[in-house]
Amino acid sequence: MKKMLTAFTLVAVLTAASCDPTNKITPTPEDTFVKLADITYQLNVYSFADSDGDGWGDIKGITQHLDYLDQLGVSAIWLSPIQTSGSYHGYDVLDYYSINPKLGTEADLKELIDKAAEKNIDIYMDYVLNHSGRGDWFNSAISSESSPYRSYYVLSDNWSADVYAGRVDNFVGSSNPYMGEWHSVSGGDIGYKGRLHFLLDWNAKTVTVTETSASAQVSNASASKWLWIGSGSLVGLYETSSGIHEITIDVNTDWGFLVRSSSTSWDGGTKWGGDGSSITFGKPFAINNTSPADITFGGQQIWYFAAFDSSMPDLNYGPYAEASQSAAFNDLAKSADKWINMGVNGLRLDAVMWIYQRRASANASFLKQWYDRCNATYKARGGKGEMYMVGEAWEETGKIKEYYKGLPSLFNFSYWWTLKDRIGRGKGNDFAATVLWFRDQYKPFRSDFIDAIKLSNHDEDRAGSDLNRDKNKMKLAGAVLLTSPGKPFIYQGEELGYWGTKSGGDEYIRTPVKWTVDGTVPSAGLNGKVDFNMLTGSISVEYQTSHEESVLNTYKKFARARNTHPALASGTMAEIACSVNPIALWTMTGGSETLLVAHNFSGSAATVSLSGYKLNSPVVANGDISVSGENLTLGAYSSVVFKQ
Ligand code: MG
């Protein structure tokens, strides 16, 4: 007779096991279990939880929801960039030493670090080293050849000649450097102080600026077109005839100006600028919203390189072998010291393959210098063990392995690409071998590598969309993630079964957490781009917490298994050869125990005969599992772990 392992019998078995003093399994209430594992939660600060009702998620919001993260079983949180930046997502940092006021204060961060530490949760910051935003550093760099920031950026008068002659350190030796573009700006004295008349011809998309002594006007509060000028002033224009908008104002700007067709949004083509050249007084100047450069008042043309976007000029660290000697490196490191000394225990490094344009060995050399510098600060502070640092090199495993010479941990993008492919094909029996192959690639470069495994992240279509919004597939993916070797990252919303694609904007893969069945979500940080059709009451934390079979509870129970079993938390994986196509089988051994892990990657029940393995002591399960003698039957997309 088949023995059905329902949720009820599973709990009963675990409870019985906990009475045995020789057995290490000690299931305890979810809010007090130990955390053997190093599960990390990837969190978008701007959309996680809003403490003050301004529509932006914020640092205090995280502190208020630490219980949620604790009960989910995480021991670290990777925060999206929190430094002052020019965008909602934060990857164009304007000041590495300050906190974005929309997200909170330094005191808020310190409070989060301290409160999280009470729950044994580390805080990791996102550090953007490839590029900065166009803030004070950049504006100073292009303003004068004697600027102390001149060397911080990849600047050139004649970039093609400089690249050809090998004078651009970011490019030297790169066989494929050309993601990105050179952009031009007006360097030197680009600002203006005095009274000016602006005439915006919206029909012709030109702006004509004239020096004038006419009376200055006040900003038009009910304007439909604005100037963005000086240190953060928004000036409303007056429509004087159809499509003609004008104003006379006193100007004091050290960078020029931009035209805006929205007073609330910078996105969706609402930002209008020039082509990088300067205006000539009295002459119409063409504006565009596809690649809008600051409209300046003079100076000389200067080119800068940006791998990603004109708003993100690449930083320059000089020849890679001596990067730690460069002024930019030392300034960035000094800023990191500040946060590490405050209690930050790890960093996630953005876009590391582009620091030296896809040159793995050069980037690894740079990253080793960066890691050593930060780790020294961490140790001087009294941090435990070695500082954690994970790099984002968005390539296949075979191409990123060399980066392990520089960093202890790297995201394994191929892990998710493989998993979603196999779930899509209903094929599980080569999964363990593939994971082991990934790990074999890394070993020659670092024996103690930390394989940062993940499903999708903030730059990819949601795992839920890749899995056809199928909750059973999402639960399977979570269970596989939490039973694989490595350091798992759970991306905000994944544990709730979110879906979303980038097609309507990246905001749709960065959706806020819906905490309660009836509550609102913070959407201002996402420019209102939130899929409210997805955010029904039943996808909320409140609803899923009280429904045993929810995606959230599946994540919780597998996280709890990982946190209470050393074999799952830090054990060694071994493949069990399996001729049944849909079934993935492996063992995890560590801490004097061995666990058998089985998943069914297909939508039909599948049975495997397991001679020599014990099938009578389940640790955790999801879906329909049944055992008959040596036969283990896994229902569609189900998972189970047995103690051996
Ligand atoms: Mg807020």
Features:
644 residues; alpha+beta; Immunoglobulin-like; TIM Barrel; 3 domains; eight-stranded parallel barrel; five-stranded antiparallel β-sheet; 17 helices; 25% helix; 24% strand; disordered N terminus; binds magnesium ion
Query: What's the rounded overall pLDDT mean?
Result: 92
In whole angstroms, the N-to-C terminal distance is 22 Å
The distinct bound ligands, ions and cofactors come out as: magnesium ion
C-alpha-based Rg, rounded: 27 Å
Largest sheet: 8 strands, parallel, barrel
Report what the structure shows.
Helix 14 (471-481) runs parallel beside helix 16. The chain is built from 17 helices and 31 strands. With 644 residues, the chain is of the alpha+beta class. Strand 20 (388-391), helix 10 (397-400) and strand 21 (409-411) form a beta-alpha-beta unit. The protein has an eight-stranded parallel barrel. It has a five-stranded antiparallel beta sheet with strand order 13-14-9-10-17, with no helix packed on it. A five-stranded antiparallel beta sheet has the order 24-25-26-31-28.
